[in-house]
Amino acid sequence: MEERNTKEESRIAALSIIVEDGERTEELNHIIHEYADYIVGRMGIPYRQKGISIISLVMDAPQDVISTFSGRIGRIQGITAKAAYAKLPARHEIRKG
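RE: above sequence
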């Protein structure tokens, strides 16, 4: 995995991943593990009645890292990934009061 780029501003993004081919989850999980340092949270929902799984990830990373990650996942046959970015860069300081 790439090292964190401290020069580029961090962004917050929510990724939605739809898994239609369960045979590809090992490949997907391998990629997710590579980017674990950037992942803030993960939620998985198996939708058994439709035979798919939905995974939601929240990331805090430079935009190019998020784009590369989402693109790698999207190139896996039977898996779709889309990212939605927060409008503002991530704020690393906590506001008081």
